[in-house]
Design goal:
Elements: H1 16-24, H2 38-100, H3 107-113, H4 117-197, E1 225-226, E2 244-247, E3 253-255, E4 260-266, E5 273-279, E6 283-293, E7 300-301, E8 306-310, E9 321-326, E10 334-335, H5 337-342
Antiparallel strand pairs: 1-2, 2-9, 3-8, 4-5, 4-7, 5-6, 6-8, 6-9, 9-10
Helix pairs in contact: 2-4, 3-4
Length: 348
């Protein structure tokens, strides 16, 4: 934006997206009530934590935009005030010039006494024009100063409002995180009891997400980091590693990688709570160390459907999903999941 009284576009306008965000963040989402089923509670809290994080990030970015806008308006306001001061100096110079040229003597008397009254008249007219121009510039700059001052106050107020809201969102995030950790512990505790007894509690009922994917195959969890890979060595395995591990937190939704039929749900042994799904083409997928299973034996599943929640049951040193691709439903027939997925257009 150029300095000077020609700045006609400096009036403040709150961006529509920020107004929408302020309205959207106006209410605090209700936190999950404690319920009898830890699986469903963990799923709800995971969704609430994701929403709270999204709102917080949006608010943080909006606050940064508003802070920058307020500072920009403050700089423009300071520049406008400097220009007004310079214009006042110009007025002073014009007044002093008039005084030195006889500004205290009436113009008619000056013309009678002057040898060249036409030059005097021309010079006086130039002084008047300069005086008028400077006065007009001062008026325009004062109007611009007023607009900038109003805009700067509004931008600063919006920035502080967003900052205050972000403090509340951060508090809410921490509260959800605390409740989620408690629910995860309860979920894992019940899972450990089932695995130790070798008896499944039955399929937990989760609110399934709307399946929008058109892909035939996809990874077993949405967000993950790969840990132990297929055929790798480790102190916790009698032989080589038989699958691919996905490092995820307790309670993370585990989904069927493709359409198929659940051939087994078991809750004891080294794999803890596990689900095995048969797919067309003769392949089977195994999902192990779960905290809960959300399907029953014989059930048909679709690609992306939640079939359980990750955990750390069985021979597991920490929360993760152990995933296998097998040629039969049984251990010992596994193939490399990374290669198998790549052949189906899925890159882990």
């Amino acid at each position: 934006m150029r300095p000077g009284h020609r700045r006609s576009s400096s009036s403040f306008v709150v961006p529509a997206v920020l107004l929408c965000l302020l309205l959207a963040l106006g209410g605090t989402p209700a936190l999950s009530e404690e319920g009898p089923e830890p699986s469903a509670r963990v799923a709800r809290l995971l969704e609430e934590a994701s929403t709270a994080t999204q709102h917080y990030e949006e608010g943080r970015k909006a606050a940064a935009v508003q802070k920058g806008r307020a500072r920009k308006m403050e700089r423009l306001l300071a520049r406008e005030r400097r220009e007004i001061a310079a214009l006042h100096d110009d007025l002073g110079r014009i007044a002093r010039a008039q005084y030195r040229s006889g500004g205290d003597i009436p113009l008619t008397a000056q013309m009678l006494l002057s040898d060249r009254p036409e030059e005097l008249m021309h010079g006086q007219r130039a002084v008047w024009q300069a005086d008028l121009a400077v006065n007009n510039a001062v008026d325009k700059s004062r109007r611009a100063e007023h607009r900038l001052a109003v805009g700067q106050r509004r931008a600063t107020a919006a920035w502080h409002a967003l900052e205050a809201r972000n403090v509340e969102l951060a508090r809410m995030k921490d509260e959800i995180r605390s409740k989620l950790e408690t629910a995860r512990q309860q979920l894992q505790s019940e899972a450990n009891q089932s695995a130790a007894a070798g008896q499944c509690r039955g399929a937990v009922r989760l609110d399934q997400p709307e399946l929008r994917t058109t892909r035939a195959w996809l990874p077993p969890v949405e967000h993950y980091a790969l840990s132990a890979g297929f055929d790798s060595a480790g102190a916790h395995w009698a032989h080589r590693h038989t699958g691919q591990d996905f490092a995820v937190s307790i309670g993370t939704p585990v989904r069927a990688v493709g359409a198929g039929r659940v051939v087994s749900v078991s809750c004891g042994g080294g794999f803890g709570i596990e689900v095995v799904v048969q797919h067309p083409g003769g392949y089977y997928t195994q999902y192990a160390h779960l905290a809960a299973a959300a399907v029953d034996q014989g059930q048909q599943v679709s690609a992306g459907q939640w079939i359980g929640q990750s955990g750390t049951t069985g021979n597991s040193t920490g929360p993760h999903l152990h995933f296998e691709v097998r040629l039969t439903p049984y251990l010992g027939s596994g193939i490399d999941p990374v290669t198998w997925f790549a052949e189906r257009g899925v890159r882990l």
